[in-house]
């Protein structure tokens, strides 16, 4: 069974959605329904997002609730807890298989409903994305940034599983800080 269509964009959507709440500063980038609409718009990869949605106040609350459930996956203590956290999402949004035949594609399964509120749709897509990431890479691929001033999450796709930060920006900042600390220690 091929679920590779849940490998790339859906995982990125999950990571980006969790990181709309800056856990280090509590700054929330989903402050209004239009922020939800903008998030969907910027993550539109044709098949994955429905840019025509008009997000309402209720959608904002539901997407924020989903975001908290997604963060639980990254903060889980082990693979089993992470699987439980993902299953909560898939159950919550009622993700059920739907056989899909796009033009030019072999028949394959989708789990997000065609017509649904943003939170339900996002929950099915991101829940499946993290499922595939866990199945294929294991829970050690799931990380929270090691920077002292950042708590963003990431999924490590590097070959040697060496990633410790959410982004190059954080890696650079931490390297500079470590370098300066060494200089101070030597001075
Ligand atoms: Zn498809
Ligand atoms: Zn970071």
Description:
The chain is 49% helix and 6% strand. The chain is built from six helices and four strands; from the N terminus they run ααααββαββα. The strands form two sheets. Strands 1-2 form a two-stranded antiparallel sheet. Strands 3-4 form a two-stranded antiparallel sheet. The radius of gyration is 18 Å and the shape is globular. Bound molecules: zinc ion (ZN) (2 copies). One zinc ion is lined by residues 5, 47, 100, 102, 108, 110.
Helix/strand layout:
Layout: H1 9-18, H2 33-42, H3 57-75, H4 79-92, E1 98-100, E2 108-110, H5 118-137, E3 142-144, E4 153-155, H6 168-186
Antiparallel strand pairs: 1-2, 3-4
Helix pairs in contact: 1-3, 1-5, 3-4, 3-5, 4-5
The protein binds zinc ion (ZN) (2 copies).
Q: Which strand order does the major sheet show?
A: 1-2
Calculate the terminal CA-CA distance, rounded to whole Å.
60 Å
What helical percentage do the residues reach?
40-55%
In the predicted model, the low-confidence regions spanning at least 5 consecutive residues are none
Q: Main sheet?
A: 2 strands, antiparallel
Strand content: 5-15%
CATH class equals Mainly Alpha
What is the count of structural domains? 1
Q: Give the SSE order as H and E letters.
A: HHHHEEHEEH
**CATH fold topology:** Jann2411-like fold
Structural class, from secondary structure content?
mainly alpha
**Would you tell me the overall average pLDDT?**
91
Number of helical regions: 6
CA gyration radius, whole angstroms:
18 Å
Coarse morphology: globular
CATH superfamily: Jann2411-like domain
Q: Quick one: how many beta strands?
A: 4
Named at the architecture level, the CATH assignment is Orthogonal Bundle
């Amino acid at each position: 069974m091929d679920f590779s269509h849940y490998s790339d964009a859906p995982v990125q959507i999950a990571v980006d959605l969790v990181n709309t709440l800056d856990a280090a500063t509590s700054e929330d980038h989903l402050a209004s329904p239009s922020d939800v609409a903008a998030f969907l718009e910027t993550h539109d990869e044709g098949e994955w997002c429905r840019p025509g949605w008009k997000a309402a106040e209720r959608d904002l609350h539901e997407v924020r609730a989903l975001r908290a459930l997604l963060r639980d996956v990254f903060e889980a203590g082990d693979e089993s807890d992470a699987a439980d956290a993902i299953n909560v999402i898939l159950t919550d949004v009622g993700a059920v298989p739907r056989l899909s035949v796009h033009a030019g594609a072999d028949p394959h399964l989708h789990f997000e409903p065609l017509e649904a509120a943003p939170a339900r749709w996002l929950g099915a897509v991101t829940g499946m994305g993290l499922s595939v990431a866990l199945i294929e890479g294991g829970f050690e691929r799931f990380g929270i940034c090691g920077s002292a001033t950042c708590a963003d999450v990431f999924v490590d796709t590097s070959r040697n599983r060496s990633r410790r930060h959410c982004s190059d920006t954080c890696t650079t900042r931490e390297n500079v800080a470590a370098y300066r600390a060494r200089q101070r220690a030597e001075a």
